[in-house]
Amino acid sequence: MFAVAVAALAFSPVALRTAVVSRSAAPMMSEGPIARREIFSKVLGSAALLTAAAASAEVDYAGVGYLGGSSTIDVNNANIRVYIKLPGMYPNAAGKLVTNAPYKNAGEMYTKCKFSASETAAVKKYESRFIFLEPKPEYIIDNINNGLYR
Question: Which domain of life does this protein belong to (predicted)?
């Protein structure tokens, strides 16, 4: 009998009104009050998400075509495999080019590399195809051994 009285009291309009009044004192997003810590973590989480979306990054390297996909070669960023396509360059002259990079111009390239006579002749043959762009660390790190094996 007591259980029936408690159940009836729970569904009475007076009990509902007092429950609504007592809950309205705290910020509500669900059935019960939300702790300050939970609100704070949600605000910080959404702020971090919005901040990450606004970050700008370099999408593409402007000279990516010169890394072996065209007739022009960026000497400062191209890896050693690019020179395989050039008869007489690989492995000796190409190894010296890649090892001693970066260069400001062709004159500095000849000074730093100390090519032999045959290597100099091979490099001179293709010198018109070489450009010297700003070195990028993400390409320099793999210029000798890029992990591609036969």
Answer: Eukaryota
